[in-house]
Write a structure and sequence with these properties.
Its main location: cytoplasm. The protein is α/β, with parallel strands linked by helices. It is built from 13 helices and 22 strands. Bound molecules: flavin-adenine dinucleotide (FAD).
């Protein structure tokens, strides 16, 4: 079958960038076509945000059952069935994926399955087996996301080496794993496996875990990880992976000027993702890459060097977060419609779903210091929050950074229970320029982890009420 299509807007890729843009555009009256070569929802729904969070929840349920005594409950004969854990995760993923198909269709977005490539800057060709579609659109959004980065490491091809995608399908129970990479994906998996009672070691090249978070938060998560028995090796460079006689993995690395090794059943490589421009033929549309040659270059309106072609999300190689991709898509549609649009990259909340969770918005202390800001810091520990204690999750803190010259809170970092939910309150506060006084006079329900925000803000003036 061959078909010619005309549209106002063509979107390539149906991840959180592409599908949200499509629904938003259609709701705003734009005739929209979306092309997807694999599965609706992209990385996020299929092999990213959602499946990892489903596994985290299963692992936390298991972990809580194992420490049920803390809740006054005796539990016997606990069995972990990884195959079922994976199946349950897939059920959630499938529900959400079919939900997107439904929403796109309901909003009259035309869905084309297949792989898209540019013929020139006006035409895109989509191939799906013997079917071919030629699409001409007034505007185009490239939202093809990212893929797992290749790493040149001897032994990477051993059968026991997993990446974030294959790990999400792995149905056998395992006893030990070495994780190469202490970034967001590596640390989320570290806690998933550790919660399941699996021996975990993390090897990180940089001198600390999670380099993007506040140094104190990074130190706290390292301590919490080590308290739980996770081995953490920072400033360590993996040189090769070997297989021992019994078929186990030996990860060899250099640290403190000496060679060390760790033996485990599996290895997970979590060293990052790279923009996915496979099959796109962007050069045929005259689209330029950014200066590092990695990812599509865009201006402040997310326009590429061909101004009617936009690029959003992971393919621009800037911030790899689903909500940034979605928000950029909405901004592009607004720009096309001539509505003022703006993405404030300084106000992007970032959550890392370790146990406990980490969340931040705005500046870290180091960033504020680098900007030569005159700052004041207020910290409130969850050990002084009643709700955290009832949850048996009293570790961690909220840390706020105030710019003394403007009096504004310019940064918030949380490590502790419900950090992922609490960060929304702080993001609204900072994004809407709500003053310290206004927060102090806001009533926070008791007992909630949200009270820790109130206390941390009070810390700037009279001091917290429940902590010295
Ligand atoms: P993607 O989601 O990658 O979607 C791109 C889509 O384009 C894919 O479906 C692909 O098949 C399609 N495509 C590519 N090329 C073509 C082509 N030529 N023709 C047609 N279709 C094409 N982010 C968060 O915010 N929170 C999290 O908790 C989180 N957890 C993560 C956990 C893991 C393990 C991973 C790997 C990522 C996680 N992320 C998380 C990051 C998040 O998944 C990405 O930032 C997000 O998916 C980017 O969205 P996107 O729309 O740019 O691209």
């Amino acid at each position: 079958k061959k078909e010619q299509l005309q549209a106002d807007l063509l979107i390539i890729g149906a991840g959180p960038g592409g599908y949200v843009s499509a629904i938003y555009a259609a709701k705003r009256g734009i005739k929209t076509v979306i092309v997807e070569k694999l599965s609706m929802g992209g990385t996020c729904l299929n092999v990213g945000c959602i499946p990892t969070k489903a596994l985290i929840k299963s692992s936390e349920v298991f972990h809580n059952i194992m420490k049920a005594e803390d809740f006054g409950i005796t539990v016997k004969d606990v069995q972990l069935d990884m195959a079922k854990v994976i199946d349950k995760k897939d059920e959630i993923k499938n529900t959400l994926v079919s939900g997107i198909d439904y929403l796109l269709s309901k909003n009259n977005v035309r869905i084309i399955r297949g792989s898209a490539s540019f013929v020139n800057d006006k035409q895109v060709l989509v191939k799906n087996g013997k079917d071919e579609y030629t699409i001409e659109a007034t505007d185009t959004i490239i939202a093809t996301g990212s893929k797992i980065a290749n790493i040149n490491l001897p032994g990477i091809d051993h059968e026991f080496v997993l990446n974030s995608t294959s790990a999400l399908k792995h149905k056998e129970n395992i006893s030990s794993i070495t994780i190469i990479g202490g970034g967001v994906i590596g640390m989320e998996f570290a806690f998933i496996y550790s919660n399941f009672g699996i021996q975990v070691n993390v090897i990180e090249f940089c001198d600390r875990l999670l380099t993007m978070v506040d140094a104190e938060v990074s130190a706290e998560i390292k301590e919490i990880a080590m308290d739980r028995g996770i081995g953490v090796y920072t400033g360590a460079k993996v040189t090769k992976i070997e297989k021992d006689q019994s078929g186990k993995a030996i990860v060899i690395f250099e640290m403190d000027n000496s060679e060390k090794f760790i033996t485990s059943e599996k290895v997970l490589v979590a060293i990052g993702r790279t923009p996915n421009m496979d099959d796109l033929d962007i050069e045929k549309a005259g689209i330029a890459l950014n200066e590092k040659g990695k990812g599509i270059s865009v201006n402040e309106h997310l326009q590429t060097s061909a101004e009617h072609i936009y690029a959003i999300g992971d393919v621009t190689n800037r911030i790899q977060l689903a909500h940034v991709a979605s928000h950029e898509g909405i901004a592009v549609v607004d720009h096309i419609l001539g509505t003022p649009s703006h993405v404030d990259y300084g106000m992007v909340p970032n959550v890392i779903f370790t146990s406990p969770e980490i969340a931040s918005v705005g500046l870290t202390e180091e960033q504020a210091v680098l900007k030569n800001m005159d700052i004041s810091i207020s910290k409130f520990p969850f050990q002084a929050n009643g709700k955290a204690l009832t949850m048996r999750e009293e570790k961690g803190f909220i840390k706020l950074i105030k710019d003394l010259s403007s009096g504004k809170i310019v940064g918030a970092s949380i490590i502790g229970p419900e950090a992922s939910a609490l960060i929304s309150t702080l993001t609204i506060m900072m994004n809407s320029n709500i003053t310290e006084e206004e927060i102090i006079h806001t009533i926070f329900a008791h007992p909630t982890t949200g009270e820790a925000i109130h206390e941390a803000v009070l810390g700037f003036s009279i001091g917290a009420l429940h902590f010295d």
